[in-house]
Amino acid sequence: MNEQDRPAEGGARTVSPGHGAAIPTGDVVAHEPAIGTPERFENPGLPAHVHRLADTDEKAAKRAEKQVAGLFLLSILGTLLFLVAYFMFGTDEQTWVPGIGRTSVSNVLLGTGLGLSLLGIGLGAVHWAKTLMPDTEVIEERHPLRSSDEARAGFVQTLTEGGEGAQLKRRPMVKYTFGAAMGLFAIPLLVQVVGSLGPMGEATEDLRHTYWNGKKRRDGSYAFSKPRLVRDPENTPIRASDVTIGSVFHVQPEGLLDEEHHVLDYKAKASVIVMRLDPKDIKSQKELDWGHEGIVAYSKICTHVGCPVGLYEQTTHHLLCPCHQSTFDVTDDCKVVFGPAKRPLPQLPITVDDEGYLIAEKPFQEPVGPSFWEREK
C-alpha cells in the first residue's frame, strides 16, 4: 500500500484514479487545482484586406460603372412607364394575366412600372456599393461627449473622402443616372397623392359608384334599374319573407355574378350584408326609411382599410370587422362603437318589388370603403 492508499484519520481515505478529479470514499474530499484561464484576450485585429477586381483593374471598374448606370436607367424607364400608364390607360380596359386572370391594363402597367423603378434603384445602389464604393474595414472610437474641434474637422474630412471614394467625380455616368432615377422616382408618388386622392381623382369616382348604380353609359351617366338583391354565391333572388330576425345574407346586385370578370373590383365594392331586426330596436329613422320592415342592407367593406365586415352578433346587433375589430351598431346607422374605423358603414336603400323580392330602391348615397377626404360630402 502506498502513501495515496493509506487510510486517513477516522478511517476515511481518498483513492486517486490517476489524472483527473479525486473520487471521495468517505468524509474527506480531495480537490485538484483548477486549470488556469487567461486574464484577458488579445485583440486579433482586422483580417487582411482583399482587393476587388474593380479596385485594381480600371477596365473592370468601367464595366461596373456601366452596369450600375444601366440599372439606374432601368429605374428611369420604369418610372416613365408608370407615368404613361397613369395618364394613358383607364381602369375599364381589361387584359388577361397568367396566374391572376382578367385584370385592369392600367393596374398591370402601374405595378410593373413602379416595380421596375424600385428594382432598378435598389439593385443599382447595391451593385454600386459592392463594386465601386470603398470596402476597407474601418475602426472608429465612439465618445460619449462632444468631440474636439480637431475630431469634428476630421469627421468632415472623412465624409469628403467618402464622397471621393464613391467615385462620383470620376464616374459621372453613375452620378447623373442615379440623380435622374432618384429625382424621377418622386414623381409617381406626387401624381398618386395629388391626382388619385384629390377631388377629381379617378379613385374617388370608383368609390362613389358601384355596380348598384348600374352600367356606365357613354355619356358618363349610370343606368340604374333597381336591381334585385341576390345571394352570393348562389346568385338567387331573396324574398323579404326569407329574411327572418337574426338571419344574415351576403348579397350582390342582380347581374353582377353573371359578369365574366365579377371577381374583380365590381364584386369587392358591391358586397352587401342584409339582416332583419325588430323595428322597435332600430334607433334611426333614416335606417327605418331605407329598410323594409326591419330588413336593412349595409356595405360589407370596412371604412377603416376595406376588410370584409361579415361577423354579426344578434344579441347586441353589432357587426364586427375581423381584421382590426372595428365594431358597428346595426340599430343606429351602423355607427362605429369600437375600433379604428372612423365612419359608419354606408347603408343601401332597399324595398320590395311586386313579387316580394328585395330590390335596391337607390344606389349607395355615399362612397363605400375606407374613409377619404370627400366622404362627408
Which helices and strands, and how do they pair?
Layout: E1 14-15, E2 23-24, H1 53-56, H2 58-88, E3 94-97, E4 101-104, H3 105-131, H4 149-165, H5 172-196, H6 202-208, E5 215-216, E6 222-223, E7 229-231, E8 248-253, H7 265-270, E9 272-276, H8 285-290, E10 295-299, E11 311-313, E12 318-320, E13 327-329, E14 335-338, E15 350-352, E16 358-360
Antiparallel strand pairs: 1-2, 3-4, 5-6, 7-8, 8-9, 9-10, 11-12, 12-13, 13-14, 15-16
Describe the structure.
- Helix content is 33%, strand content 14%.
- It has 377 residues and is an alpha+beta fold.
- β12 (318-320) and β13 (327-329) form a beta hairpin.
- α2 (58-88) runs parallel beside α5 (172-196) and α3 runs antiparallel to α5.
- 24% of the residues are buried.
